[in-house]
Amino acid sequence: xxxxxxxxxxxxxxxxxxxxxxxxxxxxxxxxxxxxxxxxxxxxxxxxxxxxxxxxxxxxxxxxxxxxxxxxxxxxxxxxxxxxxxxxxxxxxxxxxxxxxxxxxxxxxxxxxxxxxxxxxxxxxxxxxxxxxxxxxxxxxxxxxxxxxxxxxxxxxxxxxxxxxxxxxxxxxxxxxxxxxxxxxxxxxxxxxxxxxxxxxxxxxxxxxxxxxxxxxxxxxxxxxxxxxxxxxxxxxxxxxxxxxxxxxxxxxxxxxxxxxxxxxxxxxxxxxxxxxxxxxxxxxxxxxxxxxxxxxxxxxxxxxxxxxxxxxxxxxxxxxxxxxxxxxxxxxxxxxxxxxxxxxxxxxxxxxxxxxxxxxxxxxxxxxxxxxxxxxxxxxxxxxxxxxxxxxxxxxxxxxxxxxxxxxxxxxxxxxxxxxxxxxxxxxxxxxxxxxxxxxxxxxxxxxxxxxxxxxxxxxxxxxxxxxxxxxxxxxxxxxxxxxx
Length: 486
Known about the structure:
Oligomer: single chain
Strand order of the largest sheet: 1-2
Strand content: under 5%
């Protein structure tokens, strides 16, 4: 293990955190000068440590798969620890609670320990919303920059998608872009979408602070809101239709959005994952709207469709925001939402859990398997976006699904023992953290459920959130003794 090159590259992480902390520092200077040191001290610490680590590396080395995995894990742990310091110092919470809040933000889980979010200072609300945006952008860039690490876990199924932009000199339409240009394009698009959605929410009646906080949550596909009632505090169709559009876009592969800027729409039929994603969103939303319409005569169909579409998209994209208690909905509508939990957004988005392309591959493989029973001699290739996918991809996805199921069952068992939750609510809370869902069923419907749990249960949920964001296969690799051998 080349620790020198790992520590050397960590100086970029620390330097980035130091720069990022300038934003909440500036905000706190405008609102509460006494809170500024809570951001300035960790910023200065990161800057000094970044300078020291930059001088740590004295020779050349190879940044291999093992170094990449350790760098990824250490980068997340360091960022979580630093981002928790302002929360710990300002919000008057325990260190465990601050670390839980920071972990939830950076993994875009949406869970919180604050039962009264509105009582927090405005600059701290902004910081809590901003760190989840950092987590969302980070996972998108990892999809581009470290495909071998993420691909082995099945997180990024379409390796062709990664390879299309991984090597320098990749052609997008009539342009040839390298890795730096694509990273800049992603960053520019990410910031532009934040500005667009914030402007839309301001037009809908929100002040700039609320608009920015909710925009950061939507594009990171995270469910944190600076209102205790979430989107129910607004209840404006204009805002809800805008949030629906932004959530659907946030669940789309960002590389696909970039390609649309340089290619014509005639090739859109080759984006099978995005088309399946829209199909599932449409079917589940319309079905949910039908249940709502016929169960409550007070709703017209437009309102039923808007409600069903809003909550279904929120579930599929793992955003987890809610505008009313869907536990009061008809049983049929709740069943649709429960099914949406196990769907997924597109590969290359900031969403977590199972991805739509993984589900499509599983469906196509099972379909080809049934055809082979009827035609044993037939050769039926498995194709995604017009390219053949090997059977080992299906095996990796099936293994990933099995590991997720095992971890969720074990996590629910241990959380039931460590807390007073019933087994269903504990299992749902584990899924909320493992798949970074933001909300679930049972008691986990409340995003602030973690505030009532003991510290040891919070540590378990923090571990599950981090494992779910890093991918389970990566954690399993670290647990193998041969991984640490030269």
